[in-house]
Records
---
Amino acid sequence: MERIQSALNKARKARQEQRENQNREAAAPASESTQDAPLETYVIPKDMSVASREEVWKRIPAFHPKEKQLASSRIVAYRSSHDSVPYDVMRTKLLHQMRANKWSRVAIVSPSQGAGKTLTCVNLAFSLARQTNFFAALIELDMRRPALAKALKINDDCQFSRVLSGEDPAEMHLRRYGKNLFFGCNKNTVRNPAELLQGANAGKVVDEIEAQFQPDIMVFDTPPVFAGDDTLAFLDQVDCVLLVAEAEKSTIEEIDKCEQELAARTNVLGVVLNKCRYLSKHEEYGKEYS
Ligand SMILES: Nc1ncnc2c1ncn2[C@@H]1O[C@H](COP(=O)(O)OP(=O)(O)OP(=O)(O)O)[C@@H](O)[C@H]1O
Ligand SMILES: [Mg+2]
């Protein structure tokens, strides 16, 4: 893990130096790194009061999974426990950076398949929603291999792709857990995911959902970056990304290339190293957020 971290730091440093040299040559001021931006704490202001938001959110159909069912999908952050700690730490660090920059939309991405994006997203969303008076939304954009509804044990016909295509209103395909967390999931795969994500309607739909329900944060579960152009095309709609890498599988070159692609388009919050087998006391359950 330290080897990966130090290799990534080295690659970032080299890129930073290269950028600085280019900037010096162009006699232009060096660009600011969002990672180094001074951190301040404040709450993202919202127009609607908590009570009004609760009222509006009641329009979204609720679902009531059993805790055992969630646990069988490795969803652990719906309550505070030893297992939720890594996700709670991730939540705190993520919110700190997002609030400091007034960001409200984050995409969870990975270079290739199966790194743990969906599991990270869903646990992060539950962890966020355990905060009182905090409203969180998780939208699934991976319509080639949708997995969220299955993980959450949502059995009815929710198909968020129909909202993206403009065919149905959002309430029809969103599902609410408790008062302050909703999910946009897909039961079935769709034939044209790239067109749905790249179409002008995707941005409009996300803006409308944000205006209507005013979540404090919108988390997006995405397809793998190198599996197509779906994710990169959607990055215009988010403020930042969190990169999930799979321990012992994602290579340093792959992570670095992915980070470069992402950094050219949006703000990269950090790298989650998922599925670690060798843990220090402080990194139990296999995650590090750096
Ligand atoms: N930290 C972890 N510990 C154990 N198993 C994990 C962990 N993270 C993910 N998994 C398991 O790995 C598999 C892939 O995880 P997940 O579906 O979250 O990945 P993904 O990146 O969303 O995949 P895809 O690219 O197909 O969308 C799942 O079976 C999940 O339960
Ligand atoms: Mg997934």
---
Amino acid sequence: MHELSIIHQVGAYIISTHSEAELQQIEAFEMHLGQLSNIHPDLLQNAYLAYQETHPIFNKILLKTTLIPTEIYCNQCHQTTQVEHYKFQCKFCLTPSQNIVKGNELTIHKIIFKDLL
Ligand SMILES: [Zn+2]
């Protein structure tokens, strides 16, 4: 399963960049999933559940996901179009464009720490 290997990489990254004490303070992390990354949020959550079973430090850490729609940039009229139904065409001047500016994301957008107050 593709999602599981992604979660393993993300988990390893978070572990390697935080101390044990810091890990205890993490409430959630948010991932940005570009439409073109072909990562399904539900499958990613399922993979994360499986990951938590073998990595209990993550038991209290939530995974949040945000889907990022695909956007293309038009070289003709310099506008940005949100791609729907895989139609890679500028909606202003109808010029085809493969100039993808958004939608390939597969990133940890932010790590949210518990409010210490
Ligand atoms: Zn255009």
